[in-house]
Amino acid sequence: MQDEHLSIFSVSQSFLPYIGGLARYVDALGKQFVKRGHQFQVAHFKTPQTDVIDFSGGIEIIRINVPKLGDETLSKYMQFKELVLKITHAEKTDDTSGYEEYLEVNAKIAADVADAYKYKPFDILNVHDFQTLPIGGMLKDAYGINVPMVFTWHVPFIAEIPQFWKDFFIKNMDRYDRVIFSIPEYSEAAIKCGLRADKICTLPPFLDTEGYLPQEPNKERAKYSIAQNDFLVACVSRMDPRKGQEILIDALDIIINKEKRTTVKCLFVGNGSFSKELLKKERSARVQILMDTVEAKGLQNNIFFTGKVEDSELYSVYQDCDVAVQPSLHEGFGLTVTEAMVFGKPVIGSNVGGIPIQIEDGVNGYLFEKGNVRELAQKLMNAMDEPQRRKEMGEKGKETVKNKFSSEMGYEQYIRIYREILQKRNPQPEQTEGT
Ligand code: UDP
User: Ligand 1: which atom is nearest the Cα of residue 22?
Assistant: First the structure.
């Protein structure tokens, strides 16, 4: 049983080539399973630009034609998704509109997953994140599929939520054999909301460290005419107000305009969300708002926006920067912090979600109170004045990733969970002496 190869079927809203924290996580996990001879399939929403079936490093990708449901249904589904994000990020709302469409989209995914199962049964279903939470229950109720099921929650989880949402989350999570959260705080909140403790596992996210390839030095600096001795700050994030990009702009305003440290430069990497791509919206309106703010402060020669970039360019940004900043107001885990550490860069991050699990203040970077512009400005200036310390912190960061957040470790934890469930469902007869 221990050596048996498994077939894993993952479901997530987004996957490659759309890149976000979730896609990187599932890809890193899948590569580890494939490397060890297991089968790993991923089903996710088809965008207009992608094929129905594809492969990525041995991972079979099945793209579900959700756009067929129409823009109106999808817009309402996204409205409900936004409400879920509000609730899980402590923003108040009593609105539940879009719930029906959310279920409709999930019913479509469940139907396709059921087809895939009938065609080629798998050993484990692993559903990722709230967008596809009802799939487990739907497969059981509508198709009688009772395969072992794991659900991984990727955003923050808090206990202080209205009853409708508690019922919605817990009722659906309860349909799975195990529910995985990224940090203890979220697991404890789920228990408070009524999820059985013996269903819960706490596993930090992880990265495919080998996938982050070194690039030709100073390529990104050259692209934006940033001199080699300019102090370069990198901020890689979705363009979402929860990521707090304005906090960093305000801190840079202090450093550059008030402290006159004009050789500080900053690259903001990222664009809108997967939802925008699904609805064929190219440019995030938020980028424009942030660019206007930068212009109003006269910082357009110091702060640049790259938009969404290819992986090789992303790696160049991490490699060329002196320090990375993650100024989130809310954060699930914050894989960009881990990524900067892979490149040996100190990270200055706010003390929210999974960021303090990764940054040890003064060891591999600095933590600051979320939203505290002055503290961020001060910590950035400290980092500017301590080149040797930055180097040491970067080395410590590399160790942090290797010891705590590598995909090899992620694989070990997931396979243990999968095997435990399978063993519980089909107990193997005890080996008796002489047999
Ligand atoms: N990312 C990227 N290109 C971009 C912006 C972000 O590849 O233009 C990636 C980033 O490298 C990281 C992920 O998107 O792997 C974001 O993960 P994180 O956990 O920080 O945030 P999320 O978007 O999942 O909340």
Answer: 24
Residues in the chain, overall count = 435
As a dihedral over the C-alpha atoms of residue 268, residue 203, residue 189, residue 42, rounded to 10 degrees, the angle is 70
pLDDT of 366 > 60? The answer is yes
CA of 318 relative to ligand 1 center, distance in Å: 13
From 236, 239, 284, give the residue whose CB has the most ligand 1 atoms within 8 Å, as the site to mutate: 236
CATH code linked to domain 211-404: 3.40.50.2000
Same fold for the pair 7-206+406-425 and 211-404: yes
Spell out the residues 6+ positions from residue 196 whose beta carbon is closer than 8 angstroms to its own.
174
How is residue 74 written in tokens? 């999808």
Tokens 């798998």 sit on residue: 122
**Closest residue by CA, ligand 1 atom 9:** 20
Class of domain 7-206+406-425: alpha beta
> CA 356 to CA 82: how far, in whole Å?
25
Q: Compute the distance from residue 274 Cα to the ligand 1 centre, in Å.
A: 11
Average pLDDT over residues 20-47: 94
Contact (Cβ atoms closer than 8 angstroms) between residue 364 and residue 400: yes
> Mean pLDDT over residues 38-63, rounded?
89
- C-alpha–C-alpha distance, residues 407 and 385, integer Å: 34
Task: Out of 271, 319, 335, give the residue to mutate to test ligand 1, the one with the largest number of ligand atoms within 8 Å of its CB.
Answer: 335
pTM over 0.90: yes
- Does the structure show a pLDDT above 90 at 365? yes
Residue ID of nearest Cα to ligand 1 atom 21: 21
Residues at CB less than 6 angstroms from ligand 1: 19-22, 24, 236, 238, 269-271, 308-309, 314, 332-336, 339
- SS3 of 260, please? coil
Distance 349 CA to ligand 1 centre (A): 15
Burial class, 334, CB count within 10 angstroms (exposed 0-12 / middle 13-18 / buried 19+): buried
CB 366 within 8 A of CB 381: no
**From the CA of 331, how far away is ligand 1's center (Å)?**
12
For ligand 1, what atom is nearest to the CA of residue 20? Answer: 14
Residue 100 sits at the vertex; the CA angle it makes with 10 and 281, to the nearest 5 degrees, is: 70
Helix axes 245-253, 285-296, angle to 10 degrees: 10
Q: How far is the CA of 355 from the centre of ligand 1 (A)?
A: 14
Instruction: Name which of 123, 181, 171 is nearest 149 in CA terms.
Output: 123
What residue spans define the domains of the chain? 7-206+406-425, 211-404
